[in-house]
Amino acid sequence: MNINKNNFEQYDLTKIIIGGVVGLIFGILVISSIYIVESGQRAIKFTFGNITNIDDAGVHIKIPFVQRIEKVDVRTQKTTAEATAGTKDLQNVTTSVTLNYHFDQNRLAETYTKYGLDVEQKIIDPRIQEIVKAICARYSAEELIAKRETVKGEIEQNLRGALSSYNIVAEAIQITQFSFSKEYNAAIEAKQTSIQKALKAENDLKTIEIEAKQRIAEAQGEAEAIRIQTQAIKEQGGAEYVKLKAIEKWDGVMPKTVLGKDNSTLINIDN
User: Fold this and answer.
1) Helix, strand or coil, per DSSP, at residue 43
2) Is 212 a member of any domain?
3) Do residues 268 and 258 touch, judged by C-beta distance below 8 A?
4) CA–CA separation, 142 vs 90, rounded Å?
5) What is the model's pTM?
6) Nearest partner of 47 among 29, 61, 59, judged by Cα
7) Are strands 257-259 and 266-268 parallel, antiparallel or unpaired?
């Protein structure tokens, strides 16, 4: 009787273990069947290795062991690449390009199939290098400096077009100042210094010429004034005119001495 009881207890324990295992397996299957796609993500669903769907944000179900999921961030991403190129006059120029981009959500399946998701190393950086080199080669170093906004615009336009063919949307592109070799920078600085000196010398010469013209004008004015006064004296009686001018300037004080009749004797008239 004890043996039957033990057998019964063992049977119940076996059932419990089996039920627990089945329940655990079922729970794992349920859990593995449900997945959540966060906001700003998309999920690429594979069935036996083939892409069968692109799921938006939310809660979704997949078939365990048959289907798998790979989540993709479709929010704005940022990358920076440094590009070195040669100018038309054989000068080396370096610039840094910073790109904000995101995947074209409507073409994720094509993007994954053709290029994969590691687009920065495989696609973006090489395109930046190619475009910067091609555009800088059309300009001399001085033209890059003088027309940098035009050049930046060309790089941005070409980069947008190139990336769109890979289903990548360029949002914002920033291009830093073009940098040249130390030797070229020194040559540019020397040239600018020479230009500044030349401009200063030209301005100094203009100043001297203006001052000389002013002095000539002043001398001519004084000569003309003397001529006019001389002419007026002649026209107004000569010596009488001089006496009139002397009277106009007299301060009302009588002189203390006068010349004698022979113009050589001083006579004191103070007493």
Assistant:
1) strand
2) yes
3) no
4) 12
5) 0.60
6) 61
7) antiparallel
- Per DSSP, the three-state class of 22 is helix
CATH number for the domain including 83? 3.30.479.30
Sign of the dihedral defined by the CA atoms of residues 71, 76, 77, 83, in that order: positive
Q: CA–CA separation, 96 vs 221, rounded Å?
A: 65
- Residue 169 and residue 93 in one domain: yes
Total tally of structural domains belonging to the chain? 3
Q: CA 17, 18, 21 angle in degrees (round to 5)?
A: 85
Its domain, for residue 235, covers: 182-271
* Cβ contacts of 86 within 8 Å, gap of 6 or more: 92, 93, 133, 136, 137
CB of 159 within 8 A of CB of 99? yes
pLDDT in tens, 178-212: 888 877 766 665 665 566 656 666 776 677 778 77
Angle subtended at Cα 124 by Cα 103 and Cα 122, rounded to the nearest 5 degrees: 95
